[in-house]
Amino acid sequence: MTSQIVQNVLAEAEKRKAKKVTEVHLVIGKLTFLGLEQVRFAYEVLTKSTIMEGSKLIIEEQEGAVKCGNCGYEGNFKYEDDPLYHVPVPTLKCPQCGNVVSIASGKECTIKTIKMLI
Amino acid sequence: MKKHHLLLIHSAKGLSKSLSSIKKEVVKAEEGEVFDVELAEDLLKANQRLAEENKQLLHSNGIKTIDIMGAIGSGKTSLIEKMVQQLKKNYRIAVFKGDLTTTIDAELIARHGVETIAINTGKECHLDANLVKKALMKIDLSSVDLLFIENVGNLICPAEFPLGSDRRVVVVSVTEGPYMVVKHPFIFMEADVVAINKMDLAEAMGADPKRLERDVKTINPKATVVTTNCRTGEGVGDVAKALGL
Fold first, then answer.
1. Residue B71: which CATH number?
2. Pairing of strands B167-173, B64-70
3. Which residue out of A10, A33, A38 would a mutagenesis test of the B interface target, given it has the greatest number of B Cβ atoms within 10 Å?
4. CB within 8 Å: A112 and B45
5. Which domain holds residue B5?
6. Do B133 and B200 reside in the same domain of the chain?
């Protein structure tokens, strides 16, 4: 995924014939499998010897949220605690009306802005 | 279309400083104008768009598609083998088998007389819509009405990458321990059907399939849970029924 991010930024920079990319602002959803430390590490490795080398990487975490088609609830998951394992698990139940919800945010990996020197 | 906001920032603030530094700053400004590009490009959405395209292509050819996910060794291939055996008299089946390397599993499935395409991801730990799109170009879509896609063994990443299927199945086996479902809620949220497999080993493992079922239903009330033994084929008919086959 980080490789795709780097490719996309380089493509944008190429379009504008940029000499250097100075900053990349990402928004990564909390529900994605992407580990921020791993993304940072991969970013450093993948940008070496490119015009992105040394650029500042800002990662904004997007909270996970659900939406209920029945009552209109929008917000955090309803968590349930298993009595035996004591593990709070997120569920697809609406905390307001109990119907099944859909995931509205937290699954994105977005390149928000790029700062570059032309 | 992407919206671009271009902000040209010249070092005009340098004008208030001394002459020598203005010279420096002017040189700097000539060297580089800073462009601030607003992209708002969601890379995961790109896969979702491709998945939708795949779905439309499959539907226009009258093909129903089932995507099978689960941990390594949970029984995905065995489930497909048994479903193929049971359903091939009623459907013209094709199978896409995702793996990092080798065609071992694809060959096992092909033995049942169905067209099987091995998708080797190389190093990616999950299939994506693009790989499925490529595989779709390798088969005669007009000669298929049921497609099974076996994802790479992984309970994490496939949840993020829809492939364009009509239904998603997650296979979890009693040999994986009692916490597998609660540890991976997001993939179970994607599942339409969950197969709790290797039931013949449940007693030996001291496993409680009812607990696993309850965990699934807590996380995802709309999933249908079926217990299976993909060695003998027990329960596979119920999986097929739950998938509308």
1. 3.40.50.300
2. parallel
3. A33
4. no
5. 1-41
6. yes
For chain B, which residues lie within 8 Å of any Cβ of chain A, measuring from their own Cβ?
31-45, 156-157, 159-160, 178-179, 182, 185-186, 189, 211, 215, 218-222
Nearest to A113 among B32, B37, B45 (CB): B37
B4 and B82: one domain? no
* Amino acid found at B126: H
Instruction: State how far the Cα of A99 lies from the Cα of A81, in Å rounded to an integer.
Output: 18
Q: Do B35 and A116 touch (CB under 8 A)?
A: yes
Beta-strand runs (E) in chain A: 20-29, 56-62, 65-67, 74-75, 78-81, 88-91, 102-105, 109-117
C-beta atoms of A108 and B45 within 8 A: yes
B88/B126 same-domain check: yes
Q: Are residues B65 and B33 in the same domain?
A: no
| Number of domains observed in the structure of chain B | 2
Test A89 with B218 for CB contact under 8 angstroms.
Answer: yes
ipTM of the prediction? 0.84
Does one domain contain both B162 and B215? yes
Per-residue pLDDT of chain B (245 residues; tens, 9 = 90+): 433 333 333 333 434 444 444 343 333 333 456 778 888 788 899 899 999 999 999 999 999 999 999 999 999 999 999 999 999 999 999 999 998 888 888 888 999 999 999 999 887 889 999 999 999 999 999 999 999 999 999 999 999 999 999 999 999 999 999 999 999 999 999 999 999 999 999 999 999 999 999 999 999 999 999 999 999 999 999 999 999 99
In Å, how far is A28's CA from the nearest CA of chain B? 9
Asked if residue B220 lies in contact with residue A80, where contact means CB atoms within 8 angstroms, the answer is: no
Q: How many residues are recorded in chain A?
A: 118
